[in-house]
């Protein structure tokens, strides 16, 4: 049974994982933390099932118990809540996933197989994502192995981990991607306008396929769209950003508010402009770097001068 203090801190219209006051209290009180873990057992297992598969399957495959899975996931939550910064603007449900999966992987693989990824393997995973982005779909095993210049067996070995790594990225981008998607859905509400978008040559065939799926059923999640199109969820997130940037660029051009040339950082500028508008404040350079990394961009390729340029252009776009 949950303690009276815990029940008092609960909010009827807010889930425990989103209740900031409750999370802060749990950080300071071990008894509340214990109640928190008991009350959110279903959420904990939903994370495991989403990323690692069915519980019964894991138990049979790795010879672990349900309680062991739960206990290791709890360790991940304890680590997450200890290190979580409530002022960064990132939701706890996003932040907590990595520590949970880290502990679960440690349980599943520490005694049976190594999960260390070499630098070469990481580079292959990056190349796989780039190939998929370029082609607009995930190639079959033999085709992808050929493009990577590795054996099919080596590709399968790496692909086992690439799915999880891409899912991590997709989840971190969830808040931003969903906001991006809602904006697109507002754009496609008008059926005539949708047909104009689908016939517009500025969009790639893959982008049009994504828009058609959004139009077909606005309840599709990014993961469901990715599954339908046989790509990674992160690819769908990036596609929504690209579609939105193209729509904004086109509309601005029609209003005569754009320069003759497009900035090579237009997509990044659009992302920062939207986030600045939603937060209603000027973003610092650290916030911009973190946001771009969450959205799948490599922060190392931007100098401080470029980041200031992106912020300046984003502020002008949002003005």
From TrEMBL:
InterPro entries: RNA_pol_sigma-70_dom, RNA_pol_sigma_r2, WH-like_DNA-bd_sf. This is RNA polymerase subunit sigma. It comes from Paenibacillus oryzae. PANTHER family: RNA POLYMERASE SIGMA FACTOR FLIA, SIGMA FACTOR F FLAGELLAR. GO terms for molecular function: DNA binding; sigma factor activity. GO terms for biological process: DNA-templated transcription initiation. Keywords: DNA-binding, Sigma factor, Transcription, Transcription regulation.
